[in-house]
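Q&A log
Question type: sequence-to-structure
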Amino acid sequence: MAQATLSSKNQIVVPREARDAMGIKSGDEILIVTRGRVAILMPKPADHAKALLGVGKGTYPKRYLGRERRSWN
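Response status: OK
Response body:
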């Protein structure tokens, strides 16, 4: 586990271990998602739609969405 310290200017240096794991380098943008007192850092995707593709796969039972959409007509 990598560790960082918050500077007096409220800045942190992302440790090499974390940069290597995320595949980021100097100048790359990162996203910070907070959940309560937890922060998650991730590289900013070039294409958000492509990055989210398949995230919800398996959420609904087989053929559920098709039946639901047909009921809208």
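Response note: Helices lie at 16-22, 48-52, 64-70.
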